[in-house]
């Protein structure tokens, strides 16, 4: 149990490898079922447009989950994340086509904490928008 | 209409424990597109030093708001759900969540503030085992657009 990344081997200011995650309508339908959030703005284009949205949008928690996946993949252990928070600053619009939307995530080690912990600050974008802000994870490294 | 400030500090507890299952974790991991075997395969999780499959970091959203629904849906509170968006979310973890855990959540409406025409409601969810050991804390900020006018 534990992260595969060693605290001694990372530096403040270090950039983590960027990653891209696709999101299609099917993912949102699956996420609605798994999370229990059946708000129709996440799967019904007719409803989404009727309340003034450009199209179906992803659950904020789906986008937050992609940031979480980014951090756990880097750290090497899901249990290494001890604190994870985000602000939902813009929506991820998911068109009904074969490609869907792309969420691009990057991260930087903002601070090295005592007890072999680090603060990772994430940037998540979709199209021209920054979809998460104040996205920050505290990770227990080896 | 502004939200009823009398609700600040009110706490709501889940009536029954939430039982974390391997299947629900697998379903959640599939939904977020994460193929990590530690979420799907108990043997892989044990090989990595865990007692059973581990839940992804955002998994507590599945149950952490369940208790608060009673308060947020109370007509006396005055929340118009059709105007609600998720503003912020944070989890702090005392320990990982594993399949087989039986968890309780107490949700507290901890803050309501007006920013411009919007109402910001913070719901704190304290998640423990049925024995009272702390597991994680959820901080959920929902925004009622236009609610402060």
TrEMBL record, chain A:
One GO term in the molecular function aspect is:
fatty acid synthase activity
What Pfam families does the record point to?
Answer: MaoC_dehydratas
This protein is called Dehydratase
Biological process (GO) annotations? fatty acid biosynthetic process
- Which species is this record about? Herbidospora solisilvae
One annotated Gene Ontology cellular component of this protein: fatty acid synthase complex
- What lineage, starting at the top, does this entry show? Bacteria, Bacillati, Actinomycetota, Actinomycetes, Streptosporangiales
Fetch the InterPro entries from UniProt. Fatty_acid_synthase (IPR003965), HotDog_dom_sf (IPR029069), MaoC-like_dom (IPR002539)
Q: Which family does it belong to?
A: Belongs to the enoyl-CoA hydratase/isomerase family.
Q: Which PANTHER family match?
A: (3R)-HYDROXYACYL-ACP DEHYDRATASE SUBUNIT HADB (PTHR43841:SF3), 3-HYDROXYACYL-THIOESTER DEHYDRATASE HTDX-RELATED (PTHR43841)
Q: Which residue numbers delimit the MaoC-like domain?
A: 16-108
Automatic annotation (TrEMBL), chain B:
> Which residue stretches, if any, does this entry annotate as coiled coil?
none
**Gene Ontology MF terms in the entry:** (3R)-hydroxyacyl-[acyl-carrier-protein] dehydratase activity
Which InterPro entries does this chain map to?
Answer: FAS1-like_DH_region, HadA-like, HotDog_dom_sf, UPF0336/Enoyl-CoA_hydratase
Q: Where is the FAS1-like dehydratase domain?
A: 7-137
Q: Which GO terms describe its biological process?
A: fatty acid biosynthetic process
- Which HAMAP family has this protein been placed in? UPF0336
To which protein family does this belong? Belongs to the UPF0336 family.
PANTHER family membership: HYDROXYACYL-THIOESTER DEHYDRATASE TYPE 2, MITOCHONDRIAL, HYDROXYACYL-THIOESTER DEHYDRATASE TYPE 2, MITOCHONDRIAL-RELATED
Q: What is this protein called?
A: UPF0336 protein GT755_26395
- Provenance organism: Herbidospora solisilvae
């Amino acid at each position: 149990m534990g992260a595969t990344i060693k605290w001694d081997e990372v530096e403040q200011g270090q950039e983590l490898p960027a990653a891209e995650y696709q999101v299609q309508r099917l993912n949102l339908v699956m996420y609605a079922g798994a999370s229990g959030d059946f708000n129709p703005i996440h799967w019904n284009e007719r409803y989404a447009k009727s309340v003034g949205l450009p199209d179906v949008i992803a659950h904020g928690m789906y986008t937050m989950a992609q940031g979480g996946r980014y951090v756990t993949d880097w750290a090497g252990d899901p249990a290494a994340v001890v604190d994870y928070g985000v602000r939902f600053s813009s929506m991820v619009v998911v068109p009904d086509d074969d490609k869907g939307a792309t969420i691009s995530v990057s991260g930087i080690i903002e601070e090295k904490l005592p007890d072999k912990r680090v603060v990772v600050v994430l940037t998540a974008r979709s199209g021209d928008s920054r979809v998460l802000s104040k996205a920050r994870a505290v990770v227990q490294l080896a | 209409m502004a939200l009823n400030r009398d609700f600040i500090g009110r706490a709501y507890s889940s009536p029954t424990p939430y039982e974390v299952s391997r299947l629900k974790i697998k379903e959640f991991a599939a939904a977020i597109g994460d193929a990590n075997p530690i979420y799907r395969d108990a043997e892989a999780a044990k090989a990595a030093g865990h007692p059973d499959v581990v839940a992804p970091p955002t998994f507590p959203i599945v149950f952490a708001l369940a208790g608060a629904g009673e308060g947020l849906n109370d007509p006396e509170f005055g929340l118009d759900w059709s105007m609600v968006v998720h503003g912020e979310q944070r989890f702090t973890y005392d320990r990982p969540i594993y399949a087989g855990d039986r968890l309780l959540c107490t949700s507290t409406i901890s803050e309501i503030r007006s920013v411009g025409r919007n109402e910001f409601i913070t719901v704190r969810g304290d998640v423990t085992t049925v024995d009272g050991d702390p597991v994680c804390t959820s901080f959920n900020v929902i925004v009622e657009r236009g609610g402060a006018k």
